[in-house]
Structures are given as C-alpha cells and as structure tokens.
UniProtKB/TrEMBL annotation:
<keyword id="KW-0560">Oxidoreductase</keyword>
<feature type="binding site">
    <location>
        <position position="57"/>
    </location>
    <ligand>
        <name>FMN</name>
    </ligand>
</feature>
<dbReference type="GO" id="GO:0016705">
    <property type="term" value="F:oxidoreductase activity, acting on paired donors, with incorporation or reduction of molecular oxygen"/>
</dbReference>
<dbReference type="InterPro" id="IPR051260">
    <property type="entry name" value="Diverse_substr_monoxygenases"/>
</dbReference>
<keyword id="KW-0285">Flavoprotein</keyword>
<comment type="similarity">
    <text>Belongs to the NtaA/SnaA/DszA monooxygenase family.</text>
</comment>
<keyword id="KW-0503">Monooxygenase</keyword>
<keyword id="KW-0288">FMN</keyword>
<protein>
    <submittedName>
        <fullName>LLM class flavin-dependent oxidoreductase</fullName>
    </submittedName>
</protein>
<feature type="binding site">
    <location>
        <position position="228"/>
    </location>
    <ligand>
        <name>FMN</name>
    </ligand>
</feature>
<dbReference type="GO" id="GO:0004497">
    <property type="term" value="F:monooxygenase activity"/>
</dbReference>
<feature type="region of interest" description="Disordered">
    <location>
        <begin position="192"/>
        <end position="217"/>
    </location>
</feature>
<dbReference type="Pfam" id="PF00296">
    <property type="entry name" value="Bac_luciferase"/>
</dbReference>
<feature type="compositionally biased region" description="Basic and acidic residues">
    <location>
        <begin position="192"/>
        <end position="201"/>
    </location>
</feature>
<dbReference type="InterPro" id="IPR036661">
    <property type="entry name" value="Luciferase-like_sf"/>
</dbReference>
<feature type="binding site">
    <location>
        <position position="103"/>
    </location>
    <ligand>
        <name>FMN</name>
    </ligand>
</feature>
<feature type="domain" description="Luciferase-like">
    <location>
        <begin position="27"/>
        <end position="393"/>
    </location>
</feature>
Length: 455
C-alpha cells in the first residue's frame, strides 16, 4: 500500500477549541458542556475516516496573566475544562472505529492510576485508546494539585521517563492468553501469566499486580508532543504518534528528522512512529468562499486571548512588562512550559530580547494567522506538499468553529485527498493501531535501553 496520511481531530473538553475566540463565532454551538456536542463531532470525524479524536488538556484555566482569572472567565479564554477521558467515553458510545486520545499529566497523577484509566478505556472501546503524555505547564496547575510551584522543565521529563516505565510495566504484567474463563473448571485466568511489577525507583514505587488485562491492540497508543530538545528526546524514546507544530515546510522537515533520529538513538524503529503537524484549515467549496469565512474568523480574536495563552504556556506573567518593553535575558530564562514557543519567537523575530508584543506577533498564540485558507485543491496541495516532502506523516486538524470546521474539512478536503490516493477511504481494521499501521506491541517491547543510556 502506498504511504497515506494520518488525520487527527484536535479537540478540547472546554468552552472553545484551541482557538479561544471560537466560541464567539456565530455558527459555533453553544452547548459545549453537553454530551451531544461531542458526539456530533465524533460522528463527523468517523464519517470522514479520520484516525482519532484527540483531546488536549490543562489542569487549570489560564490565570498566569496578571496572576488573575478574571479576564479568562470574562472573555471565555478556555475557562471551562472538563475531564477529557469521560468526554471521550461518550464519544466512544456513538463510534466504532474512531481512535480516542486524551491528555493526562505525569507530573500530577500516579502511574498506576493513569495506567488503569487508559487501559480501561482501551477495553471499553475495543482497542481504540491513546494516551497523550504531558508534564504540564505552569504554577496554576501546581496550585490546583496541591503544590506550591511547577517543577523545572528538564526535571519533569526526567521524572516522566520513570513514569513511563511504571505505566508500560503495568500494562505488560498481564500476558496475552492469561484469561481462561472456564466455567466448568472454575478457572478464570492463569496466575503464571499475571505478574507483579514491584517497581522501586528514584521517584516512584508501585507494586501491582495490575488489575486490567491487555486489550485487542495490546495497550493504548502513546502520544507525545515534545518541542524542546529535551521534549524531542522524550518523544523519540516513547512516542508512537507525535504532534508537531511547524509553521513551514523547512521547519517541519527539520523537526521530522530530529524526532526520528531520537527514536533511532533509543533503539526504536522510526517507521513505527507517526508525526502529525498541527494545521488550521479554513475551507469551503471554493477559495472565495473560504476567504469570506476567514474574514469573519479574523474579527473574533482579542489581544488578551494571545497574552493570556502565552502566559499560561510559558508560566510567565507578561502583564509584568509594558507590551513593547524588551524582555530581559533573565525573563526569557525564567520561562517554563512549552519552551518551543519561546524558542520559535526568538528565531522568527530575529530578536534576542523580544517584547510581549513580539510574542503575540510571532507565536501565533490565540490567533489564526497561519491558517490554510482555500477550496479543496488549494488546501490539498499544501497538505500534499508537506506530506510528500516528509515534513510529517499526517495532520492534526484544529477547528475555528464547532462543529462546522470539522464538517467543512470532511465535506470538502477529505474527498480530494482520497481522490489523490493520499488518504484512506475505509478504516484498515478495528483498533487504533490497526488503523495507524502500527504493530501490536509484544509484552516488554518498550524496554529498548536503560534510562541512563537513552539520555
């Protein structure tokens, strides 16, 4: 089979999409706190044969700007945040093949808890679950979860490596074929095929035995989105679906090679990874209609949207400086969270000490300046170029209004990609791994190198 794109729907269990102004769009549904809202999205994505619905998540509303949440609530800047796993479960009830991916933090949860939640979703959905591994972003999350401050960037990833060992270790403690379920003999399972983990490490202790058998796909797919150098090493070691956010082909190709090289260094097969670049398509039957849609969308964002989301993502209070005042080197060093945003602004602005206004301009945060606008041919051309030139293996489709953006993409762009032989017309199988073309992992397959050798 010719190489084909992976397509993922990018969602949030909140009052807006990743674009905070999306709730203001006249065509967006206003019932984002209902099951029917998400179930409609699920049906749309599955009708378009997309591989997965994926939920980003945070453990706090954005409140780093001015260290206050008032602006967040007043302007609806991602102020509602529900549990994505529960929302995904409602979506799984109305779909059969669509993958179900959600974010859960290694910094603020216990490995056994995360392992059990996602293994359960995997069984309940017939092998369609994916876990997006994050280390969280900022002090707001820390304060909600009983901590005084958020841990330092690289130390979070060091701890997350051990977290992964515990989760994957628990998922491997039930062997395939462990279940007997013989009513005549009274034997439910073979105890020789169910082990305790007995993990004792620098950060975690977890005994077991684990309480959820393996699913049809072995265990949930591991999703990751590390953008910094340390994040890319983590993604290369663990990630099976990698989310990237390159803004041009050159940057995409550079990142694609970097992450695959990290996977090879960790002893993994880079072809058992799918790198998907975030894109925001604004599409219609014709380019002119799409441009009209974009003109409306451009009227929706407010400057406070970008400032709030930048403060959240970098754990830095941009309200502490005037908008046009250059940030000091110490200011830049103090930033945490998604350091790829900071590094991208430094690179794209060409300034060693950019201002808050430069961060708004060059980060794209809270805005849609990098949207792909056009009819089927124009958008398919752009997606095809990045895919064929090995800038990515697929795309994460972000929405500017809901559910219309997803419906527009499925109606106008998916058929054109299918006509070109770039995207599947039917699902390959039943599980998420089947449909992604990833191998079902054997027990213990993740043990590629000792932790210190992979660093």
């Amino acid at each position: 089979m010719n190489r084909q794109m992976v397509l993922v729907g990018f969602l949030q269990a909140q009052n807006c999409t990743n674009l905070p102004s999306s709730w203001r769009h006249p065509d967006s549904r206003s019932d984002s706190m209902s099951a029917d809202y998400y179930q409609e999205i699920a049906r749309i994505l599955e009708s378009g044969k997309l591989h997965m619905a994926f939920f980003d998540d945070r453990l706090a509303m954005p409140d780093r700007y001015g260290n206050d949440h008032a602006h967040t609530v007043e302007y609806g800047i991602r102020c509602v945040k529900m549990d994505p796993l529960i929302v995904l479960t409602t979506m799984g009830l109305v779909t059969d093949k669509l993958g179900l991916g959600a974010t859960c933090s290694t910094t603020y949860y216990e490995p056994f808890d995360v392992a059990r939640r996602f293994a359960t979703l995997d069984l309940m959905s017939g092998g369609r679950a994916g876990w997006n591994v994050v280390t969280s972003l900022n002090d707001g999350e820390a304060l909600n979860m009983g901590r005084d401050s958020h841990p330092e960037h690289d130390s979070r990833y060091d701890k997350a490596d051990e977290f992964m060992e515990v989760v994957l270790g628990h998922w491997d403690t039930w062997e395939d074929g462990a279940l007997i379920m013989d009513k005549t003999s009274g034997r439910f399972a073979d105890p020789s095929k169910v082990k305790r983990l007995d993990h004792k490490g620098p950060a975690y202790k977890s005994r077991g035995p684990f309480t959820v058998p393996r699913s049809d796909q072995g265990h949930p797919v591991i999703i990751q989105a590390g953008a910094s150098g340390r994040g890319q090493r983590f993604a290369g070691r663990w990630g099976e679906v990698i989310f990237t956010a390159a803004r041009n082909l050159a940057g995409a190709k550079e990142g694609y090679v970097a992450v695959r090289n990290e996977a090879a260094k960790a002893g993994r097969d880079p072809d058992q990874m799918r790198l998907c670049n975030l894109t925001t398509p604004v599409c219609a039957a014709t380019k002119a209609e799409a441009e009209d849609k974009m003109a409306l969308i451009n009227k929706l964002p407010l400057e406070i949207d970008a400032l709030s989301l930048l403060a959240e993502a970098l754990n830095y209070d941009f309200a502490s400086k005037d908008l046009d005042e250059p940030l000091t080197t110490d200011d830049l060093k103090s930033m945490q969270g998604i350091l790829g945003i900071r590094d991208g602004v430094l690179k794209n602005s060409g300034k060693s000490n950019p201002s808050a206004h430069d961060f708004v301009t060059f980060s794209g945060r809270g805005q849609v300046h990098d949207a792909m606008v056009g009819g089927p041919r124009e958008i398919a051309d752009k997606l095809e170029e990045m895919f064929v030139e090995r800038g990515c293996d697929g795309f994460v489709i972000a929405a500017t209004y809901v559910p219309g953006s997803y419906a527009d993409f499925v109606r106008h762009i998916v058929p054109e990609l299918q006509r070109r032989g770039l995207f599947q017309k039917e699902y390959r199988g039943k599980t998420l791994r089947d449909n992604l073309g990833l191998k079902r992992p054997a027990a213990g397959a993740w043990k590629v190198q000792p932790r210190d050798a992979a660093e």
